[in-house]
Design a protein that fits this description.
Blueprint: E1 15-16, H1 30-40, E2 48-57, E3 60-67, E4 70-79, H2 81-97, E5 107-112, E6 119-124, H3 138-155, H4 161-167, H5 173-188, H6 199-217, H7 219-229, E7 234-236, E8 245-250, E9 253-258, E10 265-267, H8 269-277, H9 282-297, H10 306-335, H11 339-353
Parallel strand pairs: 1-2
Antiparallel strand pairs: 2-3, 3-4, 4-6, 5-6, 7-10, 8-9
Length: 360
């Protein structure tokens, strides 16, 4: 893996277009990224050119190069240092320790911006073969569920789980209660005369506060349910959208991979399962859950009833919604950022549309 952030940064004219690659993006750390890419391709004397660039997500880009007589496609991601370190630990240390080192895209290079503002990760491009929830392929879903179950069962009780918690985060009941409290604090800052609130905006804030105070009152009950029925703590991916899951056909069968480990943390399996199941139409969820139930059964695990799972899933969803209140509230109180009200209105709509994940 290339990781030489302290070397002097030079202009590499042998790869046409590299000197100005992503310049229009305005992202920090581009000189360091370009130097790492040049070294990844072979260093001095390497000739080639940038063929194309494509933005995949916020701060994530697909880059295509012609290097010598072959094309090379990479994905580069600009990350906050905390998330970059977490992802690197997952890929380079934690997953290999439980025999799952091949279940994520290899990290090819790391480039740290000189002031520590950000870190770039460079990955091999896996293409567009993400798991498709709209056109369900039972074999693909079964392979993905197998990988998720292996991740959960292999890390439960593993000695590395202590390190995982230190360098990632807690996605259990602490995540719920801390996000709810911080969201309440943020909304309570939005008061006149400090912030100019129209009647409609004040009503929006008050409705959200009412929901959050109700969740705060429920925290001890939800904590008890999680302690009794949540199962063992384990390492969680933390962001199991289908866009972060790849299914690649190979000569030896299907290869499944999980990417984007920025939100990895330690907690109950319900946090991951709720995110994953909600990506699929309701009619498929019990079948997917049964696949998971069968797989974890080989490790001696069992799942609670659908009713109890729905409460655990709701706790995870509400924690995520509360988290999405915090930054808009801060932006409104500090910077009077108008976009914050649109974000708060969106969160309120999520709360209104929240339904049980599983049919009971």
């Amino acid at each position: 893996m290339v990781n030489h952030p302290h070397r002097s940064l030079k202009v590499y004219t042998m790869i046409d277009g590299l000197d100005h690659m992503l310049e229009e993006s305005g992202q920090p750390g581009l000189p360091e990224l370009r130097a790492s890419l040049h070294e990844l391709f072979g260093g001095p004397g390497v000739a080639g050119r940038v063929i194309d660039r494509q933005q995949l997500k916020k701060r994530v880009y697909r880059l295509r190069f012609a290097i010598g007589d072959r094309d090379r496609s990479l994905v580069v991601k600009c990350m906050d240092p905390e998330f970059a370190q977490r992802s690197q630990f997952v890929i380079k240390r934690w997953l290999p320790a439980v025999g799952l080192g091949a279940s994520s895209s290899p990290l090819l290079a790391v480039a740290a911006e000189r002031s520590g503002q950000c870190i770039w990760h460079v990955y091999e491009d896996l293409g567009d073969r993400t798991l498709d929830a709209s056109d369900l392929n039972p074999g693909h879903v079964a392979a993905v569920v197998e990988l998720i179950a292996q991740l959960h069962t292999r890390f439960a009780g593993h000695p590395l789980l202590l390190e995982c918690r230190q360098y990632s985060g807690d996605l259990g009941i602490y995540y719920f209660s801390s996000n709810v409290r911080d969201a309440i604090r943020g909304l309570e800052l939005l008061r006149t005369p400090d912030v100019d609130l129209s009647p409609d905006r004040a009503a929006l804030r008050n409705r959200l506060l009412e929901r959050l105070y109700k969740l705060l009152d429920e925290q001890f009950y939800r904590a008890q349910v999680m302690a009794e029925l949540g199962g063992p703590e384990t390492l969680l991916h933390g962001d199991l959208w289908t866009t972060n899951i790849f299914v690649l056909p190979t000569t030896n069968g299907l290869r499944t991979l999980l990417i984007d480990w920025d939100r990895a943390g330690v907690g109950p399996i319900s946090y991951d399962l709720s995110t994953f199941l909600l990506r699929f139409p309701t009619r498929y969820r019990l079948w997917i859950l049964e696949l998971y139930r069968e797989t974890i059964g080989h490790a001696g695990w069992c799942l609670p009833s659908a009713r109890d799972l729905n409460l655990l899933f709701e706790t995870a969803e509400c924690a995520r919604y509360a988290n999405r209140v915090i930054w808009p509230a801060i932006a409104l109180s500090r910077e009077r950022a108008e976009w914050g009200y649109d974000e708060l209105a969106a969160v309120e709509q999520w709360f209104e549309l929240l339904e049980p994940v599983l049919p009971e």
